[in-house]
Design a protein that fits this description.
binds 2-oxoglutaric acid; Jelly Rolls; binds fe (ii) ion; alpha+beta; 7-stranded mixed sheet; 284 residues; 10 strands; 9 helices
């Protein structure tokens, strides 16, 4: 039998997600986002994607290849859609992140929330591990540093570029090894599903062989609180965007400092920012 990912439902509970994640490095959660939130978020993303260019402004050929020449990407999702925060603070996703990341840090925060809208004609992305962002962290005996989910905002099919995944590759002894074609599967799933995956599993965007369909994917990842996230959260989501949000959402978006549970008094990511009420901002 070829490579495949397991599928679970939120009602199966966090233990079912963790078991599949431990075995395969990735797991599809069906009906992850409720239909009303999905509809509102998709409408906001379609509006933002309109008129946006494909590709990247970077001069680096490596970045251009990774980014995709026919793919639209953008971040600042909490700023662009009020519906984003419900997904960011989803109780099941946070329970999985607690189990995977809290053994290695007092807290974690958003790494990035990024739309990955793969357009017609896009080639498949290089297979990679997201923990590559942090040098020396991506190794077989390394700690879990990041947890990601690729949410299907539109239906993910093989033709439209569903994420390619190599189940079990997080458990390989040698991370330099390349996957053989029969070890690769695709996270085909209906809109509203999400594929949760560890930073140590090989994966990459799929090729879009359609002539006129765009794959709306939303990558949302968390990273240990003592590592620098990919996205500069507070620069993209000003205080006026987050002041009415819960402390959890503020922390995930980088508006609270890291290490607050650490009894030795250490703090990371502090600032003395006068527009933020004392006790609520980064100094808390
Ligand atoms: O678009 C996808 O399905 C995955 C993209 C990805 O893994 C990345 O850009 O890091
Ligand atoms: Fe990735």
């Amino acid at each position: 039998m070829g490579a495949r990912l397991q599928q679970v439902h939120p009602s199966d509970g966090v233990e079912a997600v963790l078991a599949a994640l431990a075995a395969d490095g990735g797991v599809i959660v069906r009906d992850f986002v409720d239909p009303a939130t999905l509809q509102r978020f998709r409408d906001d993303m379609v509006a933002h994607a309109m008129g946006r260019p494909v590709g990247t402004v970077s001069d680096s050929v490596a970045v251009q290849r990774f980014w995709g020449g026919s793919t639209k990407r953008f971040t600042r999702l909490a700023h662009r859609s009020p519906s984003f925060v419900a997904i960011l603070t989803d109780p099941l996703y946070l329970a999985v992140a607690d189990a995977v990341l809290l053994p290695h840090a007092d807290d974690y925060w958003m790494n990035t929330g990024q739309m990955m809208i793969i357009g017609p004609g896009e080639r498949s992305q290089v297979l990679h591990r997201d923990a590559d962002n942090w040098p020396n962290m991506n190794r077989p005996d390394g700690p879990e540093v990041t947890l990601s989910c690729m949410f299907a905002i539109s239906d993910f099919t093989a033709e439209v570029g569903a994420t390619r995944v190599v189940p079990g590759s997080h458990r390989w002894d040698d991370y330099r090894r390349r996957a053989t074609p029969d070890e690769v599967t695709q996270a085909a799933m209906p809109a509203g599903s999400g594929m949760i995956y560890t930073g140590r599993v090989l994966h990459g965007g799929g090729a879009n062989s359609t002539v006129d369909e765009w794959r709306y994917g939303m990558h949302l990842s968390y990273v240990l609180g003592w590592l620098t996230p990919e996205e500069a959260g507070p620069l993209g989501t000003p205080w006026s965007d987050v002041e009415h949000l819960s402390p959890t959402a503020q922390r995930l978006l980088g508006w609270r400092c890291s290490g607050v549970n650490d009894r030795d008094g250490a703090r990371l990511w502090t600032v003395d920012y006068e527009d933020v009420p004392t006790g609520l901002g980064l100094i808390d």
